[in-house]
Amino acid sequence: MEPAGVAERLHNKTFLITGATGFIAKLLVEKILRLQPPVKMLYLLVRAGDQASATERVRSEIMQLQIFRSLREKYQKHFSSWFWDKVYPVAGDVALKNLGIGDVALAKDILKETDIIIHMAATVNFRERYDKVLAINTMGVKHIIEIASQCANLELLLLGSTAYVNGKESGIMLEKPLHQYRSYDGQSDLDISEELGIGRGEAQGVSLQECFRRYYKMHHEDDWARKFGWMSTYVFTKAMSEMLAYEQILRLPIAIIRRTSTTSTWKEPFPGWIEGIKSVSTIDTWITNYGKGHLKVLPGDVTTVIDIVPADTVVNATLCIISYHTRAQSGLIYHIGSSMRNPLEIVELLHTMFRYFTETVYWCKGRGNQGEPADFASNNGQLL
Ligand SMILES: NC(=O)c1ccc[n+]([C@@H]2O[C@H](COP(=O)([O-])OP(=O)(O)OC[C@H]3O[C@@H](n4cnc5c(N)ncnc54)[C@H](OP(=O)(O)O)[C@@H]3O)[C@@H](O)[C@H]2O)c1
After folding, report:
1. Domain spanning 3-260+307-341 has what CATH number?
2. What pLDDT is recorded for position 281?
3. CB-defined site of ligand 1, < 6 Å
């Protein structure tokens, strides 16, 4: 789709965006403002106790970032007033009813004005406690659906999800919707309301002892998630959030984006921007631990394809989806991944990491670096 077509669709629109202090949504905010300066308003819901703290978070964690440098150059001394004219911080918490928005007048304005909701708030910590992940990832979607249901002019509710809700299947397959009361393989029963009760330790018909047993299993072993066909609490709670969304599909204009792992920007707003290192198991953790010399062994098949997408590609694809979906009102699940078009084998990643750290930052070694990169390359690409 032509960028002009996308920009046209965003013209004069009002957005409610959650998770804007996170990696992807802040790039999305920057791109919307760069692509479509006359966008009407971006309400950014951030975790904060009051309006002043929300504004401070948006200022220090979004507006002041390097990624806004081209807009800063464009608007010069007017940048700040232009930014605040377009961006309205909202103090809230997606784990709470009504998204925890305490300002009733502001909540009414949001319901009246919002055209498009982009829900990116989530915890992507694979080792977070089950009740906390449930509250944010699953209940968060329930709460956003309740808000979406009250919006007077809603054109789209876009939910950020993960490609890994597809369980362990491999090969080409349909991005099928997930249904409540069914595990991934359809073999065992799954009752989300019971799960949500377990998260709070008060499931009906389940003894407190059983709640704690399941809670412990989920918290410590991920067994509970695996029982239903998902590999971790994170993916399980994202899958359940999709189930809640799917129940509303006939009532609300919902689209779900399932994406694979995301890494630094490819081109926009400039190459190589990334923020923060996520929890265990994500690609950025592999790379930094390898660079520090902590990751010396990576068991696996060197020809395995890992699917990673640059963050700006995710942002561009998201904007295309918004533009297409609001126009066509069709389709429910969109997939953003790289392995079909541009597969990356683990061995290629290893060679790239080796090249990068030896050619560019290996000089750190003599200056108190904690270790040295594992020598994958001299083993003919075989993993140690
Ligand atoms: N990163 C990946 O590789 C990846 C891959 C596939 C799918 N996804 C999905 O893509 C979406 C965005 O991911 P990301 O990488 O941008 O995540 P991220 O950088 O960890 O950002 C998460 C955002 O959610 C916010 N948040 C968490 N709990 C909240 C709450 N209770 N109320 C309000 N906001 C809350 C965080 O706010 P605070 O600043 O207050 O913590 C932060 O802004 C998520 O839905 C994630 O599941 C990510």
Report:
1. 3.40.50.720
2. 56
3. 18-19, 21-25, 47, 93-95, 120-124, 136, 160, 162, 238, 259, 261-262, 282
